[in-house]
Amino acid sequence: LAFIMYVGLLFFLICLIGAYVDDQLNWFTGGIFGFFELLSIYAVLGTHVWKIWVKGEKIIYRSYIGIKHYYTFADITRITERLDGGYEFYSGKKKLFRIDNNLSDGAILAGMLEAKKIPCDKAGMTIDKFTLKTRGVYKAVSAMSVGFFCWMVWVMIEQNETNIIIFRPMLVLVVISLIIFIDLITDRFSVNGTRVTRRRGLIVKKFDISEIESTRLKKGLFGEKIEFYVKGKCIAKVSTNNQPYDLLDRRIRKEHILRKR
């Protein structure tokens, strides 16, 4: 992970320098490459500076900028496991600190606190009320793809190269990547009590969980999905990569819904 972060840091720095040398550095290229350069710096700092230690009853947390904060187990009254696998630690309603999933110590500390009977929820959700969403990394990669293809089209237009053979395919890629991005950010599967809402783009389906007769796991080109059947007809499906899928799985077991192969 650290190697990838360093490669990204170096790559976007070279892009910025190259754009400046070629006199192509403007607000657009500077903004795009500058954003990813700052993101790479943030990631590198997180890899090497961000850390947490546990010494007896004392918890030492070092932030991105190297500032240390000292807590005890008694200070923490609640833990929230984030959808990306990271953790947030609270004292009452005040968030003390956060640990992303790139720090394994976060899970270890959370386990130690749970052993001390400190409550831990899933992003504030429970088995009776939760919403499945696309993983953040997929949305980030999709957004980067949209930005890259839009930048390529913009460069071609700026240089009056709209008649070259790859211009139209690039426009198609812009449209496709934008459709995929919109689909990912609107992908929702919500359970509130017994009511289920499936939202994807402009399409919204609502039904009662008691109506579901069976489910089936089905593998496809873009991963595994779970399908929901009412009267023998598939009325909704959702990717098993969406989070928090474990809450949905537990709810299905709780309702004793038939699982088909």
Word description of this protein:
The chain is an alpha+beta fold and 261 residues long. Helix content is 41%, strand content 31%. The chain has helices spanning 2-21, 27-48, 104-115, 136-158, 167-186, 245-254; strands at 51-55, 58-62, 68-72, 78-81, 87-91, 94-99, 120-122, 129-133, 188-192, 195-200, 203-208, 214-220, 223-230, 233-239, 258-260. The strands form four sheets. Strands 6-5-4-7 form a four-stranded mixed beta sheet, covered by helices on one side. Strands 8-9-10-11 form a four-stranded antiparallel beta sheet. It has a four-stranded mixed beta sheet with strand order 14-13-12-15, with no helix packed on it. A hairpin with a 2-residue loop joins β1 (51-55) and β2 (58-62). The chain is flat and about 60 Å long.
Helix-strand blueprint:
Layout: H1 2-21, H2 27-48, E1 51-55, E2 58-62, E3 68-72, E4 78-81, E5 87-91, E6 94-99, H3 104-115, E7 120-122, E8 129-133, H4 136-158, H5 167-186, E9 188-192, E10 195-200, E11 203-208, E12 214-220, E13 223-230, E14 233-239, H6 245-254, E15 258-260
Parallel strand pairs: 4-7, 12-15
Antiparallel strand pairs: 1-2, 2-3, 4-5, 5-6, 8-9, 9-10, 10-11, 12-13, 13-14
Summarize the structure.
The chain has 261 residues and is of the alpha+beta class. The protein has helices at 2-21, 27-48, 104-115, 136-158, 167-186, 245-254; strands at residues 51-55, 58-62, 68-72, 78-81, 87-91, 94-99, 120-122, 129-133, 188-192, 195-200, 203-208, 214-220, 223-230, 233-239, 258-260.
